[in-house]
Amino acid sequence: MKTLGEPVASGDLAVTDTVLELRNVSKYYGDVQVLDGVSFRLRQGETKIILGGSGSGKSTMLKLMMGLERPDEGQVLVKGQDISSMNERQLGLVRPQIGMVFQEAGLFDSLSVFDNLAYRLYELKMEEAAIEERVQTVLGFVGLTAAIDKEPSELSGGMRRRVALARALISQPRIMLYDEPTAGLDPVTSRKINELIIRLRDTQNVSGVFVTHRLRDAFTLATVYAHESNGSIRFRREDGTFCLAHTRFVMLQNGKTIFEGPDELLRQSEDPYIRKFLA
Amino acid sequence: MLLDPKKAVIEVQGISLLVGQSIRGAFRRPFYFRDILLQMDQVGVGSLAIIMLSGFFAGAVLTLQTSSTLAAFGAVGLTGSLVSVSLVRELGPVLAALMVAGRVGSGMASELGSLKVTEQINAMRALGTDPVKKLVVPRILATLTLQPVLTIIADAFGIIGGLSVGVFILHISAKLYLNSAWDALTNQDLLGGLLKPVVFGATIAIVSCYCGMRTYGGTRGVGRSTTQAVVASSILVLIFDFFLTRLFLAYS
After folding, report:
1. Would you say residue A96 lies in a domain?
2. Domain for residue A143, yes or no?
3. Is ipTM > 0.85 here?
4. Predicted TM-score of the model (pTM)
5. Total domain count, chain A
6. B128/A123 touch (CB, cutoff 8 Å), yes or no
7. Which of A63, A96, A109 sits opposite B128 (nearest CB)?
8. Is B130 close to A109, i.e. CB distance below 8 A?
């Protein structure tokens, strides 16, 4: 399995500065309030899993973090910069620092896999050879080098998500946003996607926000970790001697945060909505 | 159905914002020349056949209809002038615009609408590209510049259509028809006939792109946006035609 680049030194893997923050954010679509005074903080190296039923405001939160939507109240900060009042041109400079995987992949269907991945690099006017090399590296990371010349319509659902993940990684972002990246996929394909996300988190120190309503995927992310041994990546589940502390849950209900904490506390929660959700 | 004033104000505001963003986008880097050329090919070359056919038969039927009236006054010789003035002033620009609204406007709205509902526009924004610059500006520039060219072609084929009917059915002399067609046209007619398509082209592209960009609600939404784009741009072409004609007549 190829690596995305040099793994970061273990000393850099610490959860440190805040890279993404929502301060008391409210959002309305017409007369419907989707988010109601939500505050959220993501630190470097940390992964937050946002859980909630349909219409609870999960995807809206991601779009706000990316600057694709504007909050009606409150602030959105990316690496300390308030993006809520930025215009489209200023946002265009901030957004490439963040990678986003869309729910239905959002691949450009008129472009090949190579062109989908190279799109951002062409915009940056990079040299052809450097573009080719970068695309190959990222496609190697998601294990899809053979699909480089295919059209998105020729790919399966799982492959499309992996290409979307590769495209989001092309400019080496330090923050990744995943909008239900495993929705509608079978358990084996979901596992592949989850392992890629875990590798990014554990070997590259990439911060992430993972939106899902699939508990199985959420708990995989919160309990499985990747570590490198003899040049290959192995996945292990946390046990009595090792507990993952950099992955936490956020639970949304009707646009409000009702829980924030690790998986162990989520499982023990007495909140009736959470109990019903976990049942 | 009654018009909701609040909704109408929001639509006008949305279109005005898009126009403002497009004007700013047209003068700021990066410039997407390749996309402009691609759109020019779609708008111009792609519309040639229907423009030539509709222009030809509009001219032909105009000649058929007017010749009998003119014959009653013994003025069949003026058929050429009537056809050319009608075509260059009104029929050519409006007909070409309605054809482009139907063919190109619907294409723009459905294409952008599909990109919107499949999150490709959001993906583009996430990758740091301004979709107005990349998708809307090339479409507006291509339609704006090629609409006058298409109108000239529609006018020319209309006059040829009229000439064909005049010569082969009504047995008017070709020389008489063409002389009368040419002599009747003033610089004012030509200028008006070329300014109108610029306004119509911009209207079609802006309205169609706006309808496409604000699409929601899946494939059903794409269908709705496409219909709205064609209906709104066609009606606006006819409304603007009235006001532009009033304006040109006031200064003639």
Report:
1. yes
2. no
3. yes
4. 0.88
5. 1
6. yes
7. A96
8. no
